[in-house]
Amino acid sequence: MNRLGFDNAKYLEMQSIRIKERIAQFGGKLYLEFGGKLFDDFHASRVLPGFEPDSKIRMLLQLKDDAEVIIVINVNDIIKQKVRGDLSITYDVDVLRLIDAFRGYGLYVGSVVLTQFVEHENVIAYQHKLEDLGLKVYRSYSIEGYPSNIAKIVSDEGYGKNDYIETSRPLVVVTAPGPGSGKMATCLSQLYHDQKRGIRSGYAKFETFPIWNLPLKHPVNLAYEAATADLNDVNMIDPFHLEAYGVTTVNYNRDVEIFPVLNAMFEKIFGYSPYKSPTDMGVNMAGNCIIDDEATRAASREEIIRRYYATLCECRKKRVDESAVYKLELLMEQSGISKEDRRIVPAALAKAEETGHPAVAIELNDGTIITGKTSSLLGACSAALLNALKHMAGIDDDLRLLPPSILEPIQDLKVNHLGNRNPRLHTDETLLALSIVASKDPIAEEAMKQLENLRNCEVHSSVILSGVDEGVFRKLGMHLTCEPVYETKKLYHKTAADGAAVLCSVSQQPKLQADKFKLFNILEVIVERTQRSVPHPRRGRDPNV
């Protein structure tokens, strides 16, 4: 059902050539502000079918010998322990993750910059931690009157107060854990310092969305607005580009609003501005690599609906304002779609109404819809996953891949030894159990082989899921939505962020690891005993096999 709409190979080639051209334009030194996600850009892969989630990093690998990476983090995010919603880890931890990821690809990480630096115990401790790990750390500071007081900003009292970041390669990629980290200010500060040192250098911006050479109301660009509804980003025609070239292009409000200030900064630093519009600053070639426009339109409409459900749930959790929901409703109206267009929603709700308990529906890539219900042994997510794997493997629906003789001892372990109140198996526990069973049982092994076929399948839950189940669906590459209701009426509902906080607690790690090993060992014993005593019947096979 997933139609290819994007030529990824063409994108990698065109994008690297474009960046090389921009490096040459500025005499061999370019600070490239890298917005969005460098790793695992699943939003782009959903709205541009054929775009690989790691495309940006693969593109950078083509420039590997010429590139170095600077990671910036706003110290306020360190102080407030800001959490990345998609990964459920704090920004300061994500900096370490990013460094490891870049190094894993063989890319050189030159330094970390602490922006809007203030003397705070958490910030000082974090700097010492980075330095103890052998990293170079630089500081930049808040500038009074930023961004309007150009004269002060572009002076020794402004950018001049910031540490000068020593770099050694022609392409300097400036990235961060999230928005508001100070990427652009870091680039411009470097331009100021380079100019004083007689070093020729330039600045460019790499944002995948909105795509500048697609129409303003193209579903791909509307899907970007849907993804940033809580940030109040709005796509708009670039008036500076239209005036300079007579060509209509698309940008977003923050870049358009800041461009006059940037233009003045460039003139103050260089004596002239190298750009006539915010679109000029960009190097994004994604729009030139769309090979099936209708496929991208269809995929983007699906994404807008998914974002609508996600925003409903975030609003229910009091993480975003209702205005974000209203914006999503407007975007759906502009796209000519409604939440009823998501096929699996009625299936999940019907199963929930039929059973009186939470239910989950999965739409497979061939269009088949599979449901799962809550039982005494399994949560609805686990049941739906097992049912989907059985269907794809051609295994009889009435066969239990994980019979009670295996599940009940695990439940006993969870409740009576590990302190859990909910005896039902979460998706991670279910897949762990299935993987152990598969080592002994060829039927379970066939089901396990189908896991890769779950990628890009759609999932809908009749209730908000735990962080554990959300994470498993995300790791499997499945597209999850939930109804904005909780399973219970408890006042406290554990979130993915809560789970991350526990995992990040050093004092908890030994117990957590011990619990995992205990579960693993008990599973092996259970399976070994079960395989000797409980046959797995399957239609068309000898029940004793």
Strand arrangement, major sheet? 6-5-2-7-1-8
The chain-level mean pLDDT equals 89
Largest sheet: 6 strands, parallel
Helix count equals 22
Q: Give the distance, in angstroms, between the N- and C-terminal Cα atoms.
A: 36 Å
- Helix and strand content put the structural class at alpha/beta
Number of strands: 14
Query: What portion of residues is helical?
Result: 40-55%
List segments where confidence is low: pLDDT < 50 over at least 5 consecutive residues.
Answer: 496-513, 530-545
Q: Work out the strand percent.
A: 5-15%
The shape, in one word, is globular
Rg estimate, integer Å:
26 Å
Q: If you had to describe this structure to a student in words, what would you say it looks like?
A:
The protein has 22 helices and 14 strands. The protein has 545 residues and is of the alpha/beta class. Strands 6-5-2-7-1-8 form a 6-stranded parallel sheet, with helices on both faces. Strands 12-11-13-14 form a 4-stranded mixed sheet, sandwiched between helices. The longest helix is centred in the last third of the chain and has 25 residues, at 509-533. The relative contact order is 0.09.
Topology:
Elements: H1 8-25, E1 30-34, H2 42-47, H3 55-61, E2 67-74, H4 75-79, E3 83-84, E4 89-90, H5 91-104, E5 108-115, H6 121-132, E6 137-139, H7 150-153, E7 171-175, H8 183-196, E8 202-206, H9 219-227, E9 235-237, H10 239-245, E10 250-252, H11 253-270, H12 278-281, H13 293-316, H14 322-335, H15 344-355, E11 359-363, E12 369-373, H16 380-393, H17 404-416, H18 427-438, H19 442-448, E13 458-461, H20 467-475, E14 479-482, H21 496-503, H22 509-533
Parallel strand pairs: 1-7, 1-8, 2-5, 2-7, 5-6, 13-14
Antiparallel strand pairs: 3-4, 9-10, 11-12, 11-13
